[in-house]
Amino acid sequence: MDGSIGFDTRLILVGGSWRACDSGQLLPLVNPSDGSALAQIARGTAADVDVAVAAAQDALQGAWGQLTATERGRVLLKMSALVLEQADELARLEALDVGKPLKQARADAVALARYLEFYGGAADKVMGETIPFINGYTALTLREPHGVTAHIVPWNYPMQIIGRSVGAALAMGNACVLKPAEEACLTALAFARIAQQAGLPAGALNLVTGLGEEAGAALAGHAGVQHVSFTGSVAVGALIQTAAARNAVPVTLELGGKSPQLVFADADLDTALPFLVNAGIQNAGQTCSAASRILVQRPVFEGVLQRMVQRYRALRVGPALHDLDVGPLISARQQALVQGYLDLAHSGGAMMAAQAPLPADLPQGGCYVAPTLVAGVDAQHRLAQEEIFGPVQVLIPFDDEAQALAMANGTAFGLVAGVWTRDGSRALRLARKLHCGQVFINNYGAGGGIELPFGGVKHSGHGREKGFEALYGFSTLKTVAIKHD
Ligand code: NAD
Question: DSSP assignment, residue 268?
Answer without folding.
Answer: -
